[in-house]
Design a protein that fits this description.
Elements (H helix, E strand, L loop, with lengths): L1 H22 L4 H8 L2 H34 L5 H8 L1 H4 L2 H12 L6 H6 L8 H26 L2 H9 L4 H29 L3 H7 L9 H10 L3 H34 L1
Helix pairs in contact: 1-13, 3-8, 3-10, 6-11, 8-10, 8-11, 9-10, 10-13, 12-13
Length: 260
């Protein structure tokens, strides 16, 4: 216990404690004026909204990918399995440049989409796609070992007792996977809400439209407005903490129900 508390204090708690200390240099009026500025509020809305959308998409398709990789053997399976980890290894700035090049109005995918009236680069849609790219491995790698541990004989037993495929999925498979799915969703959201490198290029950084909160923090740091940067960071930290705490509480409640 002592080692755990010491390690967490040095690595997590003490660095985070410096945020309110730095923000304390601002008066209450300056602090409120910074975090309630329309430009800052718009960046909050975009960062959290795009992160939730990306985590939700990854929650659905990450589950499908994890199921296929865990339950089916097909040619090229190992290659597909290795590609899942590519966003982990690829520098985020490189990912941002690649995505911008592909989805730009003259890019391989951007050009046909633009002709169809769908613009991706320099829009919130492009930001969401970038966050989907970097968040997918968190969902797949969280669910894959859990699916592998789920004995197919349990599903066969339920089927032999008269349950249809939809009933087996709803009553047996999904309740078993739900805690791990929530963990993957939370990890993907937490990774996305603070993402900078892969988003800054494809977003276009237009204030009130495609400007994310991490970029605004960097902008204030470049202007030596450390108090304003930490004020924005504290709000982002609190929003993320509340959402993650809610997800963890729901995960614990679900795990208890499954064990009962």
């Amino acid at each position: 216990m002592g080692f755990t508390i010491l390690y967490l204090s040095l690595i997590v708690l003490i660095p985070l404690a410096t945020l309110p200390l730095r923000a304390a240099s601002l008066t209450w009026s300056d602090l409120w004026g910074t975090i309630s500025d329309p430009r800052v509020v718009a960046s909050y809305r975009l960062s959290v909204g795009a992160s939730l959308a990306a985590a939700s998409v990854n929650g659905v398709f990450g589950l499908l990918l994890a199921w296929v990789l865990a339950r089916y053997d097909f040619p090229g399976r190992r290659g597909v399995d290795a590609l899942i980890d590519l966003p982990f290894a690829l520098p985020t700035a490189v990912a941002g440049i690649v995505l911008t090049t592909i989805y730009a109005p003259n890019g391989w995918l951007g050009a046909p989409l633009d002709r169809a009236g769908i613009r991706v680069a320099f829009t919130p849609l492009g930001i969401t796609i970038a966050l989907i790219f970097i968040g997918l491995p968190f969902v797949v790698r969280t669910l894959q070992p859990v699916i592998e541990d789920l004995d197919p004989e349990i599903e066969e037993a339920a089927t032999s007792l008269g349950a249809g495929r939809a009933t087996v999925l709803h009553k047996v498979v999904l309740p078993y996977l739900f805690p791990a799915w929530l963990t993957g969703f939370a990890l993907a959201f937490a990774r996305a809400v603070g993402e900078y490198g892969s988003v800054v290029f494809i977003s276009g950084n237009m204030p009130m439209r495609t400007e994310i909160a991490p970029l605004l923090i960097i902008t204030k740091l470049e202007q030596y407005d450390y108090g304003g940067a930490t004020a924005i960071a504290i709000v982002m930290l609190l929003m993320s903490f509340v959402l993650l705490l809610t997800i963890n509480a729901l995960q614990g409640w679900t795990s208890r129900r499954v064990s009962e």
